[in-house]
Amino acid sequence: MKKILFVASEANPYAGTGGLGDVIGSLPGALAAERSDLDVRVVIPMHVGKVSPEYRTAMKKICEFDVPLSWRTLYCGIYSLNANGVTWYFVDNEYYFNRTKLYGEYDDGERYAFFSKAVLEMLPHIDFVPDVLHANDWQSALTVIYLKKLYPQYDTKAIYTIHNIEYQGKYSFGILGDVFDLPNELASTVEYDGCVNLTKGAIVCADKVTTVSARYAEEIGTEFYSHGLHYIIWENRDKVCGIVNGIDLSLYDPEDPSLPAPFSVNDISGKATCKLEIQRRFGLPESETTPLVVMISRLATHKGFDLVKCILEEFLQEDVQVVLLGTGEKEYEEFFSWIANRYPSKASAMLAYNKGIAKLLYAGGDIFLMPSLSEPCGLAQMMASRYGTVPVVRETGGLADTIHPYNPTTGEGNGVNFVSYNAHHMLDALRRAVELYNKPEQWAKLRKNAMTYDFSWSKSAKMYLDMYNSLF
What value does the mean pLDDT take over residues 77-82? Predict the structure, then answer.
C-alpha cells in the first residue's frame, strides 16, 4: 500500500466550514510525513470564491474532460498544486461550485454526484490509480459506490469515514438514475427507510468504515446516536472502527508570537497576561485570581447549551467569570445576551465567530466548558488543552477518548468529566474544576497534563496507516 487518494468536499486552507476541513487539511500531510514512500493525494471541488488568489495563482490546470452523469455530459477541469508533501487536485465546474456556500443549495445531491463521478473519471487522465480511496462524509459517499459497482477495472480498496452520522445524504428514489446515475439494480444498495441514503450505500460498499473516535464508533451502533442507521452499522460492525482526530500543533501553539504574551508549559507566566487581555476586551473586572470559564462553540442544543441555560445563573453566584464566543440558534443567542446584560461583572458574550478571539480565549481561559450531548470527535477540547485551559467535558464520543478525569491522588488525567446528560452533574463538574483551580499545586499538575497530552496528527496517522495496511 503506497498510493492514497483522499476525497472530500472541503479542506483547509483552501475551502472549509468546520471539522471536516481541518481533518482533510491536516491528515494527508501527516501521513506523508510518516512514510516517505507514500504517494498521498487529495481531491476536493474547486469552490470558486472560497479559494484565495494566493492558492489560485499556485495552481496549474493539468487536464479537462467530459463527465457523463445520467443524460448529462458535463465539463470538468482539473487543477493541481503541491503542498506539504501532498498532491492536491481541484475539480472545476463553475455551474456547480461557483456558489456562495459549500452546502445547503437546492441541488447539493446533483453537485456532489458530479464531483464523485468526476473523481473516478479523472484517474486515467492523471495516470494515477490509488491503492486506497478514502472518502469522507455523504458528499463523497458516491465515490465508494461508483468505485465498487461501476468501475470494476480498479482494484482499489475503499475507506469511508463518517465525521457526523447526522448528515447522511437522503434523497427521493425518483432521482436514483436521473441525478445519481445509478441503475435500478443498485437500488437495494442505497435504499434505507424508504429513500436513497448515500451513507448507507457507502457503508455497505466500503472495505472499511471509520469514524473520528473509538467511542463514537461504538455510539453510532445504538439508536440514540445513529440517527436511524444503527441497523446498518450493526450489520457491518466487523468493518467499523474509530480513530480519533488530531490537531495542527503549529497552528495551536501557546508560544505563538501573535498572542498578547506567548508562554509554554515550562514558563506559564504569559497566560496571566492573556487572561487580563480577555477581561479587558470583554469588559470584565481584571482579576488574576477569579477563575475564567470560556466557551467557544456553535450555539445548538446538541452542544449542551440547554444544560448551560439551566444552571448558568446559579453558577454565576460564585466567584467566577464566564465568556462565550459563538453564534447559532436564536434561543441561545438571546439567552447569552440577557445573561451578559444581567451580570455585566460576571459574564460576557460575543455572538460571532472570530479565529483571533478564539485563540485568545483558548490561551487566556482557565477552564474550557464543552458539555455536548453528542460529539463525534471534537477539536476544541484539544485546542484548549494545548494552552493549558483545562477542559470540563461530558463523556461522549471523542470527548471521552481525549479528556480523562483528573485524579488528585495519582496526579493522572487531563480534565474534569461528567457522565450523565444532566445540568446539575455539569454544575458539579464545574465546581470540581474551580475547587482544583483554588489548589495551586493540583491545578499546576492538571494544567501541565493537559498541555503535554499528545494530540498530534502523527499519533493518528500511524493508526490510519495500520488500518490501511490491514486491508492488504
Answer: 98
